[in-house]
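User: Here's a structure from my thesis project, written as structure tokens. My advisor, Dr. K., wants to see whether a designed sequence matches the one we expressed. Can you design one independently, without my sequence as a hint?
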């Protein structure tokens, strides 16, 4: 039998699944720096100041922009906001906030998965961890390409555009010539003399936001990969159960069965905790993403500047791709969980003894509780949800193109009252 590349190397620990991207280590923005406690060998988070730095930068950025928005609303002065960039920044900040709020739960979940980790090559082969690790490597390589190739282009494109097209030092800097846009005190963002200092400030904010986004994405996909592997392993074990053995050696049969039922209960509990960690980010992030995509599509159809279209295309690509992936992961988890009751349905349970038949009814009822990703019961994160959101986005986009400002305000009020009543 041909061995896979993973089977030929040493046993991979769970820390390999949780390792950060190189860019996180380069900019020293690693929200979760994993290490082992020398006493009990539990996983711990060694990053202590990272969240403080991220919080300080976010407070600075949003304080300045909230002042600018309030000045626009109450004083009537022109705003320097860049809507697509600002909405994408909020999307990233929501993920950073959830990493901080759920940092203890994330560490506990990592330790529980580490406890279920195979300790030898026999367990690795039996659980098919080589396939799991290969999927992880492919996903890690894709994310590495995104953050090390695509993201630098996004950061340096406004700088090169400014150097090549800006007319003179007397002309104020436009919002689309900056990396993030927004407002800074003393007119720093509009002053060409301070352009490079402002760009460095925006670059720092972008790198921190990107670090949190990548950390969120890595943890979400690593936990998902391991949980799906455990569910597939359970389905394989359930399919191998022969009820006829309960007639020959009942005590040994139920002793072995008890191990796998307890394993199923543990994995279901881990799936529930996994959803509890990320469900708030799903709910808030998907609403922000849907609204942002509508705004970006509307701006792209109305814009005439090439750089404005490029900025919107980049942000639009990021939001659509990663929202699609989250919904895809939700469908994969649901399908893996659905394999358990399907496997039991195909079992010849009626060949077992009466005790097993009674137990089988309870077991089948428990297994029908499909593990899903959702947001507080309001949404289910799967491909059906993605298609529904995409359809709603296009309908709102068409309305924005055809309605006047007054009609849009009336429509928003009706939508608000409808959501409130339901």
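Assistant: Designed independently from the structure alone:
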């Amino acid at each position: 039998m041909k061995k896979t590349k993973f089977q030929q190397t040493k046993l991979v620990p769970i820390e390999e699944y949780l390792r950060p991207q190189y860019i996180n280590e380069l900019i020293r923005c690693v929200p979760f720096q994993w290490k082992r406690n020398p006493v009990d060998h539990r996983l711990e988070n060694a990053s202590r100041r990272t969240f403080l730095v991220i919080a300080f930068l976010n407070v600075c950025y949003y304080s300045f922009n909230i002042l600018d928005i309030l000045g626009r609303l109450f004083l009537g002065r022109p705003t320097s906001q860049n809507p697509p960039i600002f909405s994408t920044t909020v999307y990233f900040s929501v993920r950073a906030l959830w990493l901080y709020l759920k940092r203890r739960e994330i560490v506990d979940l990592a330790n529980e998965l580490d406890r279920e980790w195979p300790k030898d090559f026999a367990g690795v082969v039996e659980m098919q961890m080589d396939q799991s690790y290969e999927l992880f490597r492919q996903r890690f390589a894709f994310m590495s390409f995104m953050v090390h190739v695509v993201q630098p282009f996004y950061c340096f494109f406004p700088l090169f555009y400014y150097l090549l097209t800006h007319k003179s030092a007397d002309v104020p800097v436009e919002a689309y010539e900056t990396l993030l846009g927004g407002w800074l005190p003393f007119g720093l963002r509009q002053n060409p003399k301070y352009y490079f200092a402002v760009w460095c400030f925006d670059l720092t904010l972008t790198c921190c936001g990107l670090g949190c986004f990548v950390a969120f994405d890595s943890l979400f996909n690593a936990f998902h990969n391991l949980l799906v592997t455990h569910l597939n392993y359970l389905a394989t074990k359930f399919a191998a159960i022969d009820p006829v053995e309960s007639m020959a050696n009942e005590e040994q049969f139920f002793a072995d069965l008890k191990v796998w039922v307890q394993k199923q209960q543990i994995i279901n509990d881990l799936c529930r905790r996994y959803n509890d960690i990320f469900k708030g980010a799903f709910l808030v992030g998907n609403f922000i993403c849907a609204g942002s995509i509508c705004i970006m599509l509307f701006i792209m159809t109305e814009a005439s500047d090439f750089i404005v279209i490029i900025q919107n295309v980049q942000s639009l690509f990021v939001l659509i791709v990663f929202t699609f992936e989250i919904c895809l992961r939700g469908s994969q988890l649901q399908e893996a969980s659905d394999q358990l009751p399907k496997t039991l349905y195909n079992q010849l349970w009626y060949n077992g003894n009466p005790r097993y038949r009674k137990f089988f009814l309870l077991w089948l009822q428990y297994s029908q509780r499909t593990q899903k990703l959702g947001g507080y019961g309001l949404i289910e994160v799967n491909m059906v949800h993605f298609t529904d959101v995409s359809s709603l986005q296009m309908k709102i986009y068409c309305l924005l193109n055809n309605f006047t400002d007054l009609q849009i305000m009336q429509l928003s009020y009706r939508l608000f009252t409808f959501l409130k009543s339901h």
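When you compare it with your expressed construct, this may help: The chain is about 70% helix and 0% strand.
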